[in-house]
Amino acid sequence: MTTWTLERAKNQLSEVVRRALAHEPQFVTRGGHDAVVVLAKEDYERLVAPSGILDFLRNSPLAAAMAAGELPEDAFERRRDLPRDVDF
Questions:
Q1: Would you give per-residue pLDDT tens digits along the chain (88 residues)?
Q2: Cα–Cα distance between 6 and 23 in angstroms, integer?
Q3: 85, part of any domain
Q4: How many domains, the chain?
């Protein structure tokens, strides 16, 4: 991992991108503080993609709301109403 100042990263953007595309994250500082990380698109997509449907559902905002008790207990209960009469 390489750390660049913002000024140096701007002056050598091609090198920053080349290293990121080689799957080496590039850190850029601004004002002496960590600011951003430059990643290859493939690496970024791998980081944010769910690993499977089960993990996606477990980490969904709905699962978090249910765990926090923010939904009524009957939010997903099936209604027992009889269907209406329909003439064909």
A1: 799 999 999 999 999 999 999 999 999 999 999 999 999 999 999 888 878 888 888 888 888 888 898 888 788 888 778 788 888 8
A2: 20
A3: no
A4: 1
State how far the Cα of 88 lies from the Cα of 64, in Å rounded to an integer.
44
> In angstroms, how far apart are the furthest CA atoms of the chain?
75
Asked if residue 66 belongs to a domain, the reply is: no
String of DSSP letters for 33-74: EEEEEE--HHHHHHHHS-SSHHHHHHTSHHHHHHHTT-S-TT
In a 13 Å sphere around the CA of 64, the CA atoms on its Cβ side amount to 5
Q: How far is CA 72 from CA 37, 59, 67, 78, 81, in A?
A: 41, 19, 11, 14, 19
In a domain, 15, yes or no: yes
